[in-house]
Amino acid sequence: MTKLLSGLCAAALVVGLAGAGGVAPAQDKKDTKKSAPGKGGGTIEVNESKDGKFRFTYRDQAVDVRLSVVPTIHGENVVMRLLRAGTQLGPIEGLGMPDVVARDYAQLVRRPHGMILVTGPTGSGKTTTLYTALAAINTPDRNIITIEDPVEIRLPMIRQVQVNHEIGLSFASTLRSVLRQDPDVVLVGEIRDQDTAKIAVQAALTGHLVFSTLHTNDAVGSIARLRDFGVPSFAVNNALLCVVAQRLVRRLCTSCCTPELDSSLFDSLPPHLRSGSFKAPQGCAICKSTGYKGRVGVYEMLRVTRRVQAAIESEENRDVIQRIAAEQGMQPMLMDGLLKASRGLTSLAETARLRPISDEEPSPSLAQPAPTDQPGRIAA
Ligand SMILES: [Zn+2]
Question: For the whole model, what pTM was predicted?
Answer without folding.
Answer: 0.77
